[in-house]
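Troubleshooting log. The previous run stalled partway through. Resubmitting the same two chains, unchanged.
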Amino acid sequence: METIHQTVRIEFQYPVHFTRRIVDAGNSVLREVIASGGDGGRRVIFVVDEGVCTRERRFLQQLEGYCCAHSGVINNVARPIVVPGGEAAKNSREYVDLVRSAVNSHGICRHSFIAAIGGGAVLDMAGYAAATSHRGVRLIRLPSTVLAQNDSGLGVKTSVNRFGKKNFLGTFTPPFAVINDFELLESLSDRDWLSGAAEAVKVALIKDRAFFEAIEESAEPLRRRKGEAMERLIYRCAQLHLEHIAGSDPFETGSSRPLDFGHWAAHKLEQLTNYGLRHGEAVAIGMALDVTYSYLTGILPEKAWRRIVRLLLDLGLPVYAPDLETRELLAGLTEFREHLGGELTILLLRDIGHPVEVHQIETERMRESVLALSEYAPVCSK
Amino acid sequence: METIHQTVRIEFQYPVHFTRRIVDAGNSVLREVIASGGDGGRRVIFVVDEGVCTRERRFLQQLEGYCCAHSGVINNVARPIVVPGGEAAKNSREYVDLVRSAVNSHGICRHSFIAAIGGGAVLDMAGYAAATSHRGVRLIRLPSTVLAQNDSGLGVKTSVNRFGKKNFLGTFTPPFAVINDFELLESLSDRDWLSGAAEAVKVALIKDRAFFEAIEESAEPLRRRKGEAMERLIYRCAQLHLEHIAGSDPFETGSSRPLDFGHWAAHKLEQLTNYGLRHGEAVAIGMALDVTYSYLTGILPEKAWRRIVRLLLDLGLPVYAPDLETRELLAGLTEFREHLGGELTILLLRDIGHPVEVHQIETERMRESVLALSEYAPVCSK
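Second attempt completed without errors. Output:
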C-alpha cells in the first residue's frame, strides 16, 4: 500500500496595536480586539503581573472599571489572576496550574480569551497555559515592559522553565492580538526602561544599520527617559522583529536563529546569576561577547566593534559580568544547541547590519573575548 | 502609530507509511524515516505501550536488535520508556514527566526524535510531551491498534487528561511521520480489533457512502479477523481522515468539527464508565445515539437509521450502555462545547454520507433516542 503524503497549511493573523492608557473607558482598543472574536459578550480571564499592580496602584480597579463600561462585549468571568513578575512566574508549576484551573472552572473555551498583562515572563507563562488548555485558548498580550513591547511579547513563542533550564517547556503559538500601551512604561525603573533597549540594538545589528545609527542618535534622550524616543525605538524594533518572524521559518524547524544573536551566553548568564541580571542586560553582555569574538577572530573591523560596545555603554547597559569568567559559561553553547536543535549555529557580525553564521566556536578565543571585556568591569559594576 | 498586521504561514508535511514487521532488520521504513531527518546518527527515544510488550513478548528485544542493525542512522540513546496503555497513560502527570525528563537527560533536541509505539492514548501522551519539550521535538508515531492506525494516530493532535476531563491539555502539532505496521494488529484482542472499526464507520457516514457499503460487505470477514479486510478498511479510513485534516481548518479555530461526529456522548460515556468502554465502543454508541436522534427528529429516513445500527451490531460494536440513561450524560454537550469552543455544533445525518450541522439539541428528544436504543441493551450487554 502506497505511502500517503500529508500536507497541512496554516495561516495565522494577528494585529499589533500601539496605544496609551488601555484601561481608560474611552480607549476602544481592547474592546474592539475582543469584539473581533465574534458576537456576544466574550469570556475573558485576565492574568496580571504583580509588578504592574505595584507600579500602578489603581490598575486593577481601572481594569475592572473598563470591563464594566464594556460589559456588552467583555465578559470578565473572574477576578484577575495576579502572579509574580520575572522568572518566578516561569520557574514553578504553580502559576501555570493556576491559569489552567481558572480556564477549567470558568468555562473558558477556544473562542474565549486569556488577556495577559505584564512583562515577558508573565506573557510567556500565561501564553503557555493558554496554548495548552483545550489545545489553544485565544491569548491577548498586553506587554508592560520595553523588552516585552519590542521583542518577547510580539512573537509566536510561549514557555516556562523546567529542569533549571530556561524555556525548556513551550510551544509555537501565535497570539490573537498584541496591544502595546506606552503609558505602562512610564512607571518602570530606570534599569527596566533601559535594559529593554538591548533587543532593539540586537535587531539593528543583524538587520538594519540605519536603525543602529538612529539608536546612537537617541541614546541620550533614551537615557533621559524621553517617551517619544522610546516609542520610536519600540515601533521600529517591532516592525523588524515581526518581519523576521513572518519570514521563512517562523516555527524554527531549521538550525539558523538570527534573533537569538548574543543569546547563548545571555541565557547562561541569567541562569548563573540566578536571574539577578535582567534579560536585556544579559543580552547586552552576550552581544558584547559575540561582537568581541567577531573582532578577535578577524571577522569584524575594530572600529565597528568599538562603536557597538560604546552604544551599549551609552545606553547604560552592561557589557561585562563576573560570571563570564566561570567555567560553566561555555556549557551555554551546548545547552543552546540542544534547545534549538540541529547543528550549533551562532551568529557573528562582519559589520553593523551584516551578520554571518558560524558552526564552531574556538574556546580559547572566546576566553580572550571575555578578558577583553573585563576592562569594562569597573564601569559595569556600578 | 499604525497597527502592524502580522501574518504567519506554516506548512507541515509528513508521510503516513503502511508496512509489516517494522522491527525486522530488513524493513527499511523506520530507518529511512529517521535518515530523512538529516545526516548522522539521529538521537531517538522510544516510548512503548506496555500492551505491545505484553502482546509481543520479544518486541523490545527485536526493537533493540533493529536499532543495533541500523546504528549508523539510529542513535538509540536510552532504554525504551515503557508506559501503561489506555487512559492511564494520560490521566497522571507521571508519564509526561518521565518522557520530558528523558528528553532533558539524554540531550534530545528539536532535530532528535521521540518514537512512540502504542495505542492512541500512548501516542497522545508522548506527542504532548514531544510537542511541549523545547517547543517541539520530532515525533514518529507507530500506532499499534486499529483505532490508532485509522484515526487518532494520523492527525495533528496531542493531549493528556486533566481536571478529570479528557484531552483538557494538548496541542495541535503534526507528527514528523506515521508508520502503520499491520502486523502489530494481529495480537489484539477481538474487542480491540473490532472497536477500532467504529471510526471507519464514522468517516464513511459523514464523507463516503461507497465506503459505508464496502464496510457492510466486509463486516463478516472483519469479525472473522481477516487481515486483508482490515488493512483495506484502515487504508481508506486513513485517506479520508487525512484529506479532511488537510482541508480548511486543521487547527480547529472554527466551531464545526465533523470528525467529532458521535463524540460528545462518546467522551462523556468514557468518563462515566471510568474508561471501562473502549474509545471505539463509546464512539459506536455515540453515533448510534446521534443517528437515532437524527431519525426521531425527522432528519434521517428510518431505513438508513436501521441500516446504520445494523452495521454497528454486525461489526460486534455496542449501540447502548446503561450510562446513557444517567442524568450526567447531557452535561457532555456543555463539556464538548467548552472543549471545542464557539457555538455548540453537533453533526447529525440526513443520509449515509450526508451530514448536517445543528446548534441546538432537544433534551426530551435525546432522552427518547436513548430509550429507543435501550431495546438493544440485551445484545450489547454480552
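Takeaways: Chain A touches chain B through 68 residues (CB under 8 Å). The first helix of chain A runs from residue 29 to 35.
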